[in-house]
């Protein structure tokens, strides 16, 4: 470990970031009782735009806003928008403790996508972890035994599209400006959600506007704490802290939404978490992974309200002790 770095401090910062993210999701669920996911995503992103704009103005590196890889940037923007509205829909219609294990499948999907996109060579150990982890997702969803609703499909869509967006960052992130990669999903959100907004519009109450501001603030705060966590601790220690969100899901679900917890969901969550943690450990082992796609993804599913922390770090010129890609 590099001098001056503290894995303990990094882990604590990551746990705090995940607690804030989980609170962000609980507020989304509260708003989802009255508003469409489209309306929530649109206004939460709109409220986060002024703060994000100040951050982006800090990027003083010379360059233009024309993408170097326009098609990759477009696909990433579309996937990020879909991830956001799908995740918000899932949080609104499923118990929190069911949504997280499905989203936790992202490291498994990223590992598979890294093969064609990055040329990653995945050995037997990681393939086994992927297969076992996907079995864990099936345990949570229980097709044929439990009713499979739009919420489950939305969560699976968010995991898949979030994985595609994440792997594209690993593909082009070292060439594209962070401003381009952060602004393109925001622009896509305003265009797509703005076009759909009249179809689902419900007048906003002042209290709910305040909750939308909380969603915007907590999304960015979580990202900043993740930056600090990865600057302090090693990725192999910090990355698994994302799974602590399942604890908050149980707590918030129990106390605020009258959501129970069942054995298959917790069993499936445990299988997915164990598989994802094993993949992180394998990637951190010398000479196992050339690209370290999961470690470099840095945790949380990216939406327009929870931007990729590594991109914010680049925009703020905070390469610091750990660097970023």
TrEMBL record:
Give the signal peptide, or none.
none
The cross-references to Gene3D superfamilies, in alphabetical order and at most eight, read: 1.10.3730.20
Q: InterPro entries, from UniProt?
A: EamA_dom, EmrE-like
Coiled coil located at which positions? none
Keywords, A to Z, come to: Membrane, Transmembrane, Transmembrane helix
Indicate the transmembrane segments per the record: 35-57, 69-91, 97-115, 127-144, 150-169, 181-204, 210-230, 237-257
Q: Which domain of life is it from?
A: Bacteria
Residues in domain EamA?
9-141, 150-275
Q: Does the keyword Membrane apply?
A: yes
What is the protein named? Answer: DMT family transporter
Q: Which organism is it from?
A: Rhodobacter flavimaris
């Amino acid at each position: 470990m590099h001098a001056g770095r503290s894995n303990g401090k990094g882990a604590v910062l990551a746990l705090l970031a995940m607690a804030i993210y989980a609170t962000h999701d609980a507020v989304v669920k509260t708003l989802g009782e009255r508003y469409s996911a489209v309306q929530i995503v649109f206004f939460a992103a709109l409220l986060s735009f002024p703060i994000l704009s100040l951050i982006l103005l800090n990027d003083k590196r010379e360059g233009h806003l024309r993408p170097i890889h326009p098609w990759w940037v477009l696909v990433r923007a579309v996937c990020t928008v879909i991830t956001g509205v799908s995740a918000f829909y899932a949080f609104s219609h499923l118990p929190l403790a069911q949504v997280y294990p499905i989203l936790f499948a992202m490291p498994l999907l990223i590992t598979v996508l890294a093969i064609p996109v990055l040329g990653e060579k995945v050995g037997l150990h990681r393939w086994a972890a992927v297969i076992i982890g996907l079995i864990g997702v099936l345990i949570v969803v229980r097709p044929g035994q439990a009713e499979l609703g739009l919420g489950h499909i939305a969560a699976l869509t968010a995991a898949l599209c979030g994985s595609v967006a994440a792997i594209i960052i690993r593909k082009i992130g070292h060439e594209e400006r962070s401003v381009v990669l952060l602004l393109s999903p925001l622009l896509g959100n305003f265009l797509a959600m703005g076009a759909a907004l009249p179809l689902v519009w419900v007048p906003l109450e002042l209290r709910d506007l305040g909750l939308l501001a909380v969603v915007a603030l907590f999304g960015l705060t979580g990202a900043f704490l993740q930056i600090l966590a990865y600057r302090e601790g090693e990725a192999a220690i910090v990355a698994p802290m994302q799974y602590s969100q399942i604890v908050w899901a149980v707590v918030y679900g129990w106390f605020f939404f009258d959501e129970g917890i069942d054995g298959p969901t917790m069993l499936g969550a445990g299988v997915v978490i164990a598989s994802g943690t094993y993949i992180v450990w394998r990637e951190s082992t010398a000479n196992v992974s050339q690209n370290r796609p999961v470690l470099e993804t840095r945790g949380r599913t990216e939406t327009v309200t929870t931007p990729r922390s590594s991109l914010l770090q680049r925009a703020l010129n905070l390469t610091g002790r750990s660097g970023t890609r």
